[in-house]
Amino acid sequence: MDYFFAQLEEKRRPMATGKIIVVCVYSGRTQDSGVVSTVNYPGRSVGIHSGMPIAFAKKRAPPADSIFIPVDHEYYSQVSMQIDRIIRRHCNKVVQASIDEWNVEEDSIADKDAAARAAELAAGLKKAIRNELGLACSVGVAPSLLGAKMASSKSKPDGLLVLDRAEEAKMIGGSQVEKVPGIGPKTAQALSEMGVVKVGDIEKLDPIALVDVFGRKAGAWLHDLGSGRYDSGLGSEKEQDEISRIGTLKEKTRDPYMLLARLDELEKEARERLMQMKKSYRTLSIIFVTEDLKTHTKSESFRNPKNWDADTHKEAEALVRAFLDGNTLEVRRIGIRFGNFMDLGGQTTLF
Hints:
This protein is an alpha+beta fold.
């Protein structure tokens, strides 16, 4: 996904079109303490980037043309799950690598027309995400995961780049080593000291020298990289440590019965996923997004884990009423989250 957090904040703030949007992780020590999480392209054009101190970013962003926003992980995670469902509906083998990145493999297009068919599938996927969620993403298609990741980065923003085997080898071999996923600054510096500028230069190095400097595993990987042998696996699935569903209400309200009715609908979806994952949970949370767009959470943790089909209606109702008692604002969105997972390995309760 392109500048994911900032793009989502743009989407729910249409009046901010054209402004610099900076999504921040505030530490709370002072008003400007913390770092930039994500910034949109207008912000990048003035030199703001992820990891930059917020105070530095504010010096580069004209106050009248910029908005600094705290991260809203509940909202971003919910949209991420919606994207995940779209991708899995279109593609056979899917691994979610992070909150905003997916790796896909399609065995069905491994033939002489693979590039054309892959381009058609990728374009359809981009269109579905755009039509259903109004979001832009960039897709790279290549014979290997490494090639696809680099093609995706190269095509940003809102791009699509399809490479055949020869084009993939040319792009990767001609890339600066520091631009290759998996090669960090220290490795890039060490390779530079060995005379390597581009990936293709690694092939000239003695494999034994690579193992001596970087160790057996990393040295072998670098040797394969320089020789044009790229991993074709899908990588590891991001382990899901919670399941949540959040939905928008038909109208802003403080009516507990309206809130609980919407919550019942969302709970059914979340429990279906719990059943598929074969998980029990120890924490139940109710998420509230109030009319000022702030997110609030009320949670209860259980001494003994709850099975996926356990009735927690009373607990959910108590959390809703506790929130309403302590907050005077109307609720725009409500959600439910199950967390603190345990695997269902046979008997899960004493009786």
